[in-house]
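Pasting two entries for a bug report.
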Amino acid sequence: MELSKRLQTVAAAVTPGHRIADVGTDHGYVPIYLVKNGLCPSACAMDVNKGPLARAAEHIGQEGLSDKIATRLSDGLAGLSPDETDTVVIAGMGGELICRILKNATEFLEAGMEFILQPQSEWFKVRHLLHDAGYHIAGEWFLKEDGKYYVVIKALPAPAGQQESYPDEFRYAYGSCLLREKNPVLLEYLQKEQQKKKSILARMAQPEEEENIPQITDSEQQSRNSQEDPENTSGKSRKDPEQNAMKRRQRQKQLEEEIRAIGQYLRETV
């Protein structure tokens, strides 16, 4: 079985020898790969839908791994207890959904699990939640596959008395590890983001285009997966002109700050 580049990166982030719980397993490819290659002694493939879980069970059976990989119908981590796993993998879901799953399973955060997370959007929310829960972001990977950009986050409990946090939203939006490592794929992504934001800002200088201006926000736009069109929005405002003008100025200022932050980083890096 050959994994996609995205799933290969997810699998490689798991600490060898750990039991894993794969939430939203879909076809079960990640646990199959890890167990089949001796990187994981056992696994639990979980999904909220019966269809994907049945496909996963079929693939697991075809590989002769039914005795090592269990399948479980579960909404998030609700069907699992912390003592059944060492690493929780959640890949291919939106950042907001990943945050909801973790907030509904605080016992796993309190138990000091290893988390391998691959949010499709709102990356900043996931990083904030991990820090708020007392976790250390031990590593991040940023990759491009089929024209789409993906981030993979590995989080471990922070050492006692060493609460981790980032000094600004720029690092939560793009990942302090990736920025520090000058990840080349991230640099490409940032250059594209800078141009997108400049284009939006230029449009905002034209009053007649007001209703077509996307309602973007700082980290939310930055962390939205690039395959989503950042200019696609239904958040048109029809409130009074004064309030619209104020929101417009706020968005312009926000964009200017984001463009400046990206530009400064690129100048210091490229």
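Entry 2 (this is the one that rendered wrong in the viewer):
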Amino acid sequence: MLEQINFTTKSILEKTNNFRPEVGIILGTGLGGLVKEIKAEYVIPYEEIPNFPVSTVEGHSGKLIFGELGGKKVMAMQGRFHFYEGYTMHQITFPVRVMKAIGIHTVCVSNASGGMNPDFEIGEIMIINDHINLFPTNPLIGKNIKELGPRFPDMSEAYDKRLIASALEIAKANNIKVSVGSYAGLTGPCFETPAEYRYIARIGADAVGMSTVPEVIVAKHGGMRVFGVSIVTDLGVEGKIIEVTHEEVQHIAAAAEPKMSFIVKEVIRGM
């Protein structure tokens, strides 16, 4: 894996004239609009990056954007990879390994989710403060490569408390309603049944989705700080569960995206 990481990193640096970002951004379903805020210097389609998977899901355009956001050099993934697409955990998290190799110290992740917290509303912005890994595997399973991180990484603060506090201050100062909660990651691609929603809520999650957890595990393995934000696009609360489609999820996420983008940009500015 080290050879692949180093080869891909070298290729990206050659294509970007040795551009060295500080912050990595992973954009979820319907949330690619944040790239409009980036003063882009280089754009590379995933197809042109060696060892990179290719996004197969609508709403994930499949480009790496290099530029400036909030006064910091950033690398943004406009489109992520999912376990349900048939990719392995190593493939899903490979871009995070490359981020670390390029020199990134902080990763910002975003997603669309189903909300189980009865206080949540559709379009709610949830700052992620913890997660539950309900995938059937873990990206760190297998022989540990010590150059990438420790065998048993600590996850007691998967999401950086200082960045969470910064986001809450920014939201309050700009009258943006946000919540804080835990996120459960499942494989998908099915949306959850009512019984699954009840189960996930009872074990401690406020929202559920099909991504994020693998990337965060690898980011923490690599010693990076993580900031996570989720947009609640449907409700898994008894009495409020209705049929949902991927198109509706994209639409709701896109409507809430400007506020999320503002928070992410200002959090990055304050790093």
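Dev reply: Rendering is fixed now. As a check, the viewer should reflect this: Helices lie at 2-15, 89-102, 161-173, 194-202, 213-221, 246-269.
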